[in-house]
Amino acid sequence: MTQIFDTLVIGAGPAGMAAAIAAAESGQRVGVVDDNPAPGGQVWRHGTPLPNAGRRWKGQFEAAPAVRLAGWRVIDCLRLAPDGGVLRAECNTPSVPAADLHFRHLILATGARERFLPFPGWTLPNVMGVGGLDAMVRGGLPIAGKRVVVAGTGPLLLAVAAHLIKRGAQVVAICEQASLAQMAPLGLALLRQPGKLRQGAAYRWATRKTPFLTHCWPLAALAEPGADDHRDPGTQPRLRTVTLHRNERQWNVACDYLACGFHLVPNTELATLLGCQMQDGFVVTDQQMRTSTPGVWCAGEPTGIGGVDASLLEGRIAGLSAAGKSEAALSLSQRRPAIQAFTQALEHACRLNPRLRDLAAEETTVCRCEDVHMGALRERSSARDARLHTRCGMGPCQGRICGAATEFLFGWLPDPARPPIFPALVSSLMEEAAAGSPAQPEIDSR
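The structure corresponding to this sequence follows.
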């Protein structure tokens, strides 16, 4: 299958939707690729109640004259030149053949994922990411009456805790690893963002009965057999207790779930595959969201973790710029400095405490896919060395979980991305090999 576009957008979260709307309204033939069944990304997840802004943006996106490839993901770049290129995409449905997506302009809006850090017990059942537990609850997981500890760092802690309480959960503690002094600049930045300030105040009010503990983190998740575990001898004992640490004090908290996430990591695999310049783990862009690779723009979390407002603004700038509306894009870009100030304050507030590097014991699993323990990785000198000797990062997630952890734990820089950037069907790779390097197509922009 072949699809031909003027502008191709990768990702249908807030940044991708804004980019697609702007480009389509400018007369471009637009395609949008996203591996979820519906637009909205992790922020405006399918099937959940949306805020007014989310409903407006999703309504505009649905009405925009764009081709939406839902349930698809890009696995490789077949060709890239200043005047366009070709990406190979694969559908979540194995019976659907892979597609070659031809484009003149490419906008990357690939979002971000949670960062996880290993500690004893983090692989137990009912220990999961903050966003992961939130998604499961929104998908129907019964949480009413369950005791939950929410831990890690970042604004997601309060937002998810507020939602869990609304669903009837008993959130017994919210543990933020940053100190109060470290978070102070973020508070000042919020004063210049009235909308975010109101939102944060609403979350804190919703969680007012729950202790909010700064400079606090989990040391271990502990299990002991419960009544349900005895019924099935093959069932792994579930989480029963979390050991917390704060100001040199340790204590145990009984709970049914531990939601733990240490801020967000940008999804930059495709950007690095395309040769985009990176700085401090983020894609470098100019005022119009153009990357260092000609014909490629980037918007949203891959350029800096700044939240929905930043993603919407950058997406619209990228869509206008890709459509040749440079004057309009530059006009919008004048609003970026204020948003970038908030992004920098958030990054400062979420800096990880170096003591978190000492949480994992020698026998603690770091790479869950390949069951690689901390002790085996201490002997290695780089991410590549670890892969060669332990297979760390070579499992189905392709290092998306353990890669961010080992970068923090050991300072290992990730190697350049190589195709396929997601696990792919052999049939898709065979089609790619048979196709060779396609010639530059003529693009119909009607």
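The chain has a mean pLDDT of 92.
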